[in-house]
Design a protein that fits this description.
Elements: H1 12-18, H2 23-43, H3 46-61, H4 66-83, H5 91-100, H6 107-124, H7 132-142, H8 148-167, H9 173-183, H10 189-204, H11 214-225, H12 230-249, H13 256-266, H14 272-289, H15 297-304, H16 315-330, H17 344-347, H18 360-363, H19 385-390, H20 397-409, H21 415-431, H22 433-436, H23 440-449, H24 456-471, E1 507-508, E2 514-515, H25 525-540, H26 542-547, H27 549-559, H28 562-574, H29 579-595, H30 600-608, H31 612-625, H32 629-638, H33 642-651, H34 659-672, H35 678-683, H36 691-703, H37 708-718, H38 723-726, H39 729-733, H40 748-770
Antiparallel strand pairs: 1-2
Helix pairs in contact: 1-2, 2-4, 3-4, 3-5, 4-5, 4-6, 5-6, 6-8, 7-9, 10-12, 11-12, 11-13, 13-14, 13-15, 14-16, 15-16, 15-20, 20-21, 20-23, 21-24, 23-24, 24-25, 24-27, 25-28, 28-29, 28-31, 29-32, 31-32, 32-33, 32-34, 33-36, 33-40, 34-37, 36-37
GO cellular component, one term: PAS complex
Domain Vacuolar protein 14 C-terminal Fig4-binding: 542-720
Family: Belongs to the VAC14 family.
Length: 782
């Protein structure tokens, strides 16, 4: 510093003392400056006051020599003390050079800068609030200072500034929020602690409504919640807890829509505390905001569904996620199936021309059209309050179905998640069937594939969805409802119902789909498509048929109409080119028909064949059952067509008797001993009126080798009484009652010819496979 330079009105002694390396001498100089400035204040000499401040700033505080900078800082503080209440007029000139020293490499200088600013702020009090942002910016940097003395000094200044803000009603929150939003993303733990402490203070001030600006800082708060420091995490938990309490008290003033995507992002984090906290917030948002959250359903489901499969290690998160899922599902109502332009609530909505939602909303992962992609953009879309309130609430099925389809297709997804997805699909088909049928063709393949799931509960839920698709009235028309996005119209060219057979077994009526008989409910076109694809899946995946087939068909008989299912499957199998599969499938269906409690009513319907519908059903089943000779006989036993059963068994002599054939006869003998055929065994008492029943059973006996089944049937037939011993005077006069007359509407001769035709096809196929041509070898394969 040039000693000859004129620093007036500062005397040479003051200048010399300000440059001294000893603190005490600089302090003496500061007292002299204070005295000098007081005189100028008394004289109202603003020009000299500004000159003193400028000199201390430019020539000392911002100079190169460290001791000069220290002298300048203490001199500026002395000026502020001397100015008193008038210091507010010169705050910009007083504060700026001090804040510059906050970045100095010398820790002692940074400490003196803290001390100087403390004195300036202490004198000015509320007058410093217009300069709050620059003060906050400087303090946020000092909060992370490595020097403990500097950090201690900054904490004193920080407490003073908080006191001033708390007692003032002139704090400019609007201009402060951008700075807070920027600083909240700091990774330094001390800076984070500083930010959290300020948010707590601002939240506690009654005149400051920080809740209005929560969308601006919520993402940063969740970032801080993942800090490694336990104390910081605890502080952040307290802040978020206070905000959530405020939200519950004043839900009408909360901008739920603007924070929905933020919660979606943090609900998918790997940090348990962040995920649990975000999920709790999501739960409260759904319950408080209600249908306002519907446009964000796809993102919410992306975050919530995987959590449902968590084990006990994350039990808390799983429980909260389950509540979120259930609450969100309840928000979907039948009114969401109406065309958007017809909704009463939306007719009243009149958004302002400039209040449309930003385009980013539609493409954000958690937004209305979001997909199941879990990688979200780091930038969060923020919407204006006006647009949120005025925009109509719409359920975006495109995004929801995409998320559900994605999760159901993922084989790594847990069982509970898959069940939740299927519950959602079922719920949507119940509440919004017209719109959901636009997505049925995209969902149908994965729903069929899910039938191979390892869990019975998953399969059961899957069948409920498929049954609803197959029976919903919305699927009976060519136009299921309004489009909810791209045209996903079902291609009905694949759903053509076969031409009715000779016996009038299947009927079609316009767009009503498949109609099995006048006595049963009408199914839509997807019912027949479902039956076709189910049989195709059984054909390509034989293990599925063996392990799950009976369970699937029995459950379908409970969910839909058993007669429709058997009628349609029989008709499809009649056209099956894979004869071996047709035989296997017929055997499986026959076993289900004879043994399942779910089919009790259908068995009773077939037992008497009193109505035209039951006769029609019998003819339809019979033609397909012909793929398997033994099952055809069992069907005749069930329907009490004993004469025809006897005629069929007579034809067995022309068939190729194999080990599999004999095994099926063995199973039939076992079935005859079951409760299902109790009425048949009782009819053996009436020998005179049931001769063909006894002949048929003897025919089966003659087919069997000397085996346990042979012994079982032989013992049963030995119990048949002598008809002469059972005759009484009344029985001689009575007309025959037990022998059921053949129904005149059933052409049994034609059925027998059909049986022979089908068996000849099977025989030809077997010989072609074995390379024996048309040579008929009737040897038993042992």
């Amino acid at each position: 510093m040039n000693p000859e330079k004129d620093f007036a009105p500062l005397t040479p002694n003051i200048v010399r003392a300000l440059n001294d390396k000893l603190y005490e001498k600089r302090k003496v100089a500061a007292l002299e400056i204070e005295k000098l400035v007081r005189e100028f204040v008394a004289q109202n000499n603003t020009v000299q006051i500004k000159h003193v401040i400028q000199t201390l700033s430019q020539e000392f505080a911002l100079s190169q020599p460290p001791h000069s900078r220290k002298g300048g800082l203490i001199g500026l503080a002395a000026c502020s003390i001397a100015l008193g209440k008038d210091s507010g007029l010169y705050l910009k000139e007083l504060i700026e050079p001090v804040l510059t020293c906050f970045n100095d490499a010398d820790s002692r200088l940074r400490y003196y800068a803290c001390e100087a600013l403390y004195n300036i702020v202490k004198v000015a009090r509320g007058a410093v609030l217009p300069h709050f942002n620059v003060l906050f910016d400087g303090l946020s940097k000092l909060a992370a200072d490595p020097d403990p003395n500097v950090k201690s000094g900054s904490e004193l200044l920080d407490r003073l500034l908080k006191d001033i803000v708390t007692e003032s009603n002139k704090f400019d929150l609007v201009s402060f929020i951008p700075l807070l939003r920027e600083r909240i993303y700091s990774n330094n733990q001390y800076a984070r602690q500083f930010i959290i402490s300020w948010i707590l203070v601002l939240e506690s001030v009654p005149d400051i409504n920080l809740l209005d600006y929560l969308p601006e800082i919520l993402d940063g708060l969740f970032q801080i919640l993942g800090d490694n420091g336990k104390e910081i995490r605890k502080m952040c938990e307290v802040v978020l807890g206070e905000f959530l309490k405020e939200i519950k008290k004043n839900p009408s003033s909360v901008k739920f829509a603007e924070m929905a995507n933020i919660l979606v992002i943090h609900c998918q984090t790997t940090d348990d505390l962040i995920q649990l906290t975000a999920m709790c917030w999501m739960r409260e948002f759904i319950q408080l905001a209600g249908r306002v959250m519907l446009p964000y359903s796809s993102g919410i489901l992306t975050a919530v569904l995987p959590c449902l499969a968590y084990d006990d290690r994350k039990k808390s998160i799983k429980e909260v996620a389950n509540v979120c899922n259930q609450s969100l599902m309840k928000l979907v109502t039948p009114e969401d199936d109406e065309p958007d332009e017809l909704r009463p609530g939306q007719r009243q909505a009149e958004p302002a021309p400039d209040d449309a939602l930003p385009k980013q909303e539609g493409t954000a992962s958690g937004g209305p059209d979001g997909s199941c992609d879990s990688s979200f953009s780091s930038s969060i879309s923020v919407f204006t309050a006006a647009s949120t309130e005025r925009a109509p609430v719409t359920l975006h099925l495109d995004g929801i179905v995409q998320v559900l389809n994605c999760h159901l297709s993922d084989t790594a997804i847990g069982m509970m998640t898959r069940i939740a997805v299927l519950k959602w699909l079922y719920h949507l088909y119940i509440k919004t069937p017209r719109k959901m049928f636009r997505h049925t063709d995209s969902l149908f393949p994965i729903l069929l594939q899910t039938l191979s799931d390892e869990s019975d509960e998953v399969i059961l839920k899957d069948l409920e969805v498929l049954a609803e698709i197959a029976s919903s009235p919305a699927g009976q028309t060519d136009d299921p409802g309004p489009l909810d996005g791209p045209d996903l119209r079902a291609s009905h060219s694949e759903l053509q119902v076969p031409t009715p057979g000779r016996a009038g077994l299947l009927n079609t009526s316009g767009t009503k789909g498949l109609e099995c008989s006048p006595s049963t409910p009408t199914m839509n076109s997807y019912f027949y498509k479902f039956m076709i694809n189910l049989l195709k899946r059984f054909s390509s995946e034989r293990k599925l048929l063996e392990v799950r087939g009976p369970f699937i068909i029995r459950q379908l008989c409970l969910l839909l109409n058993a007669e429709n299912i058997f009628h349609s499957m029989a008709d499809i199998l009649l056209r099956e080119e894979d004869l071996k599969f047709a035989s296997t499938m017929v055997h499986a269906l026959n076993t289900i028909l004879l043994t399942s409690t779910e089919l009790f009513q259908l068995r009773n319907q077939l037992k008497d064949l009193k109505t035209l519908e039951s006769q029609n059903l019998f003819c339809c089943l019979y033609r397909s059952w012909c793929h398997n000779p033994v099952t055809t006989v069992s069907l005749c036993f069930l329907t009490q067509n004993y004469r025809h059963a006897y005629d069929l068994i007579q034809k067995f002599g022309d068939l190729e008797v194999t080990v599999d054939f004999l095994a099926e006869v063995d199973k039939l003998v076992q079935l005859i001993e079951c409760p299902i055929f109790t009425y048949l065994r009782l009819q053996l008492l009436d020998v005179k009126n049931n001769p063909y029943l006894i002949k048929a059973l003897y025919g089966l006996l003659m087919l069997l080798p000397q085996s346990s089944a042979f012994q079982l049937l032989s013992h049963r037939l030995q119990c048949v009484p002598n008809p002469e011993l059972l005759q009484t005077e009344d029985s001689l006069k009575a007309a025959p009652k037990s022998q059921k007359a053949d129904s005149p509407s059933i052409d049994y001769a034609e059925l027998l010819q059909h049986f022979e035709k089908v068996q000849n096809k099977h025989l030809e196929v077997r010989h072609q496979r074995s390379g024996r041509g048309d040579h008929l070898d009737r040897r038993v394969v042992l």
